[in-house]
Design brief:
By secondary structure, the chain is α+β, with helices and mostly antiparallel strands. It contains 3 helices and 9 strands; from the N terminus they run αββαβββββββα. A hairpin with a 5-residue loop joins strand 5 (about 110-115) and strand 6.
Length: about 230
Amino acid sequence: MRNKTISIITVILIGSFLSNSHAVFLNSLNTTISLGSSMTAEPFHNRIAADSLASIIDASSAVATETHTQSTHVYVNGGTLEVDFNFGAEYDLITFHFWNYFTEGFDVDDIDFKFFDSSNTLVGNIDNIAPQIGGGNPISAENLALSFPTNVQFINAVLSGSNTQVDFNNIGFTGELSVIPEPLANLLIIFVTVSIIIVTILAASYEALKKKKNFRVREASFEVFIILQ
């Protein structure tokens, strides 16, 4: 019975640890971004490329808002924008977050995605995403569910506008790690091993205490029997 209890507790501990693998918002803390191969070195209208690219992935969370200003927006005048994302590890993507411009004259009208795994093998694509116009200023993200992309580390994105204007504030993704990294897996083994040792010691201590208590009860009963005799 004790071994069965320990086994059940071990399963619970493992399940609890694995459940900590949760959705992660992918932004500048875990993502890098660069211009796509079709772009010139400085394609942006009123900001240098380094600043514009940094602005694309600087949202603090999926629910953050951002005010559109000349120092926060990303603007290409008279063309498309191609960018490449690198998450540093493979993720199963859940949601695409997009902070679009809030008037029809300059907003992004179409986005095409290509998804690649860690070996740069194409694992899928989504074309002709038509984002909504941003809902005023400050801008909130539109959240689009992604049911397909798994094992994605790299993304190529092409953004365009019907009038050759591309203006927006941020792009973000939410996803879960596709595979538990080796250091985390090793930590899991250590965690479970230590937990089993602790549970085993506690169970043994409990059994010893219970036996000692039962012995004292039997000893007291024997003394009472002698006195009655």
